[in-house]
Amino acid sequence: MILVTGATGKVGGQVAAQLAEAGTRVPASASCAATRLPDGVEPVRGDLADPASLAAAVTAKVDGVFLMWPLPHARGAAETVTLLAEHARRLVYLSARGVPEAGEAGKSAGEAAKTGEAAEEREADILGTHARLERLVRGSGAEWTLLRPGGFASNTLGWAAHVRAGGPVRTASPQAGRALVHEADIAALAVRALLTDELVATAPEITGPDVLTQAEQVATLREVLGRPLTVERVSRAESRTELIGAGVPPVYADAILDAHAAMETTPETVAPDTARLLGRPPLTYRQWVADHAADFG
């Protein structure tokens, strides 16, 4: 039995669906019992923002947990990881490429929790939050795998409103290059980490097969969706306002914009072991767009 968190999202939903297809019993935590989940997945009440609520989801011993952390801070993470590790043999955490290697990898979850409020403030960006969660998972006493994907193809759904309006797609960094990864590939690696011993105590990186600038991503959307889309470069301030208006915390918006600006001159690279880890070529961004055409309206 594998507990999946975040099963209503793109990656978590794929993990739950692929586990269910493999014949694994899959309870999935959801803050609302009525939330729609993939076929064959059992809803259980549980909210990562409230560690105590997860107790019911892990009352039975589970073989593993797929853990993703959707909150813009690490508060409550130590309690959550400790609780999950008490009931699960293995934790597979969805982290991110670029997380610095932790100097506190040997600390227990309880010890890592004592870093204090100052450390929480220092780690209040995307990679910092992931780094803290990685330390907690490594020190939990459970078997662990840290998945480190590059840019999510699904993040380009942030352009959906622009696409539905017929464009232009507005971005502050149209020449930022990324090797966007399909959530189905992330999920395939997560399932391997959960069901086999091949990735225990590793932090594999995974990306898509090609580096595309944001302008090239929009061109792919134009070709696959058949929409007359163009790209418009806007100021950082305009892009920041749009991100925050869409619900992105300001510190995360700044980190995203900084990363994209840097990628205009230093693009993200393709992770060299992705095909070997998957046992097949990774899915392309073009395939992702075809799979999600309906999401763009």
- How far apart lie the N and C ends? 36 Å
Major β-sheet strand ordering: 1-4-5-6-9
Corresponding CATH superfamily of the largest domain: NAD(P)-binding Rossmann-like Domain
* Assigned CATH class of the largest domain: Alpha Beta
CATH-defined topology of the largest domain: Rossmann fold
Low-confidence stretches: 104-109, 112-123
Q: Using the alpha-carbon principal axes, give the shape.
A: globular
Number of strands: 11
Helix and strand run: EHEEEHEHHHEHEEHEEHEHHHH
Structural Rg? 19 Å
Largest sheet: 5 strands, parallel
Strand content: 5-15%
Per DSSP, the total helix count is 12
- Mean pLDDT figure: 89
Total domain modules: 2
Helix content: 25-40%
SS content category: alpha/beta
Second rung of CATH, namely the architecture of the largest domain: 3-Layer(aba) Sandwich
Q: Your description of this structure?
A:
Helix 2 (77-87) links the parallel strand 4 and strand 5 (88-94). The chain has 297 residues and is of the alpha/beta class. Helix content is 38%, strand content 14%. The strands form four sheets. Strands 1-4-5-6-9 form a five-stranded parallel β-sheet, sandwiched between helices. It has a two-stranded parallel sheet with strand order 2-3. Strands 7-11 form a two-stranded parallel sheet. It folds into two domains: 2-149, NAD(P)-binding Rossmann-like Domain (Rossmann fold, 3-Layer(aba) Sandwich); 153-180 and 208-269 and 281-296, Rossmann fold. Helix 9 (236-245) packs across helix 10 (250-263). Residues 102-121 are annotated as: Disordered. Residues 6-195 form the NAD(P)-binding domain. It comes from Streptomyces diacarni. This is NAD-dependent epimerase/dehydratase family protein.
